[in-house]
Amino acid sequence: MQPDQKNPAPAPSAAPLGSPLASPVASIVTPCFNMGRFLEETIQSVLDQDYPNIEYVVVDGGSTDGTLEILKRYEGRLKYISEADKGQTDAVNKGFGLTSGSLFTFLNADDTLRPGAIRAVVRAFADNPGAAVIYGNAWHVAEDGAHISRYPVERYDPANLARRCFICQPAAFVRREVFAEIGMLDVEQHYALDYDLWIRIAHRYPKPDCMKKIDVDLATSRLHASSKTVGQMAPAMRATMEMLRRHYGYVPFNWLYGYWHHRLSGQDLAAQKPRASVGSACVSIAAGARDNWRHPARYLRDILDTARQGLAK
User: Fold this and answer.
1) Domain shared by 167 and 57, yes or no
2) Helix, strand or coil for residue 182?
3) Can you give the pTM of this predicted structure?
4) Buried b / exposed e across 92-108, counting CB within 10 Å, b at 16+?
5) How many domains does the structure of the chain reveal?
6) Please, what's the b/e burial string for 9-19 (b: 16 or more CB within 10 A of its CB; e: otherwise)?
7) Are residues 291 and 166 located together in one domain of the fold?
8) CB 3.0 to 4.6 Å from 195: which of 74, 151, 165, 278, for a disulfide?
9) Nearest Cα to Cα of residue 139 among 223, 213, 195, 211
10) Residue 181 lies in a domain
């Protein structure tokens, strides 16, 4: 995907991968649209960090729910713009163009950073100069902020990345030049935008240390009815499968089963594993045979491996 021509990324200002970063500026962009009920908590989680070199930009898509009144209260402590955009990915890319820090992340207006998160990330980048991405642990939280479950974060493995998204987006930071070089977020992606980002980075930086997990709680990811993950689960899963097909030419059985099981049973899979169901399995196997007909042996192994892993858990 080519960079957004209307909002081109600035020339990379960070040191090349492998160069030391003494006290880098960490840039954070929050895309926002009518999320005023969560926004202030998100803002405070950034401004209360104990790391001094933070650049914070909120890109609002023209909210009508009091968001601007909240942002005005923080004038002088953050930058913000409010104007119509093409959605979340466009807002993030636009915000990236307004920043200059050598480390970058985007934090949605319903997510939060944990105390000390940025300092831990900066230290990890200094300790791992070859890393393109540093990511850590995270929690799923409810609308009121109560913890639901841990996000299923795993240590980096490119083979596993082709099967599942084990990086929690608000708990991940990217080097600026990496984000710019791969063309920022794909503005055509409205659901699997973070998963797509990790895959593109993994393809561009194939070394095993390109993405480094640290064992620190860095963020929370909020689940609520207005979030895409919960409120638009079926189209989000369809978009993810299409994205995986585009990148790998294959749709893993775990995604096929999750999608069809959700369609057939209505189970909320945002923070739960799908339950075992013979009916869902039959429909998923048939659908996958159509999608993965070029890879019959691989698909059969995938079904068997998924069944074993499910039985073992």
Assistant:
1) yes
2) coil
3) 0.88
4) bbbbbbbbebbbbbbbb
5) 2
6) beeeebbeeee
7) no
8) 165
9) 223
10) yes
Residue ranges making up the domain that contains 166: 26-225
Task: Flag whether 302 is in a domain.
Answer: yes
Residues 168 and 51 in one domain: yes
Contacts of 263 (CB under 8 A, 6+ apart): 234
Q: What is the DSSP annotation of 206-238?
A: -STTSEEEEEEEEEEEE--TTSHHHHTHHHHHH
Phi first, then psi: what are they for 223, rounded to 5°? -110, 125
Cα–Cα separations (whole angstroms), residue 29 to 20, 146, 179, 185: 24, 24, 13, 13
Digitized pLDDT (tens) for each residue of the chain, 313 residues in all: 333 333 333 333 334 444 445 689 999 999 999 999 999 999 999 999 999 999 999 999 999 999 999 999 999 999 999 999 989 999 999 999 999 999 999 999 999 999 999 999 999 999 999 999 999 999 999 999 999 999 999 999 999 999 999 999 999 999 999 999 999 999 999 999 999 999 999 999 998 899 999 999 999 999 877 777 777 888 999 999 999 999 999 999 999 999 999 999 988 887 778 888 999 999 999 999 998 999 999 999 999 988 887 644 3
CATH of the domain at 212: 3.90.550.10
Encoded tokens for 55: 């650049």
Residues 169 and 298 both lie in one domain: no
Cβ atoms of residues 62 and 36 within 8 Å: no
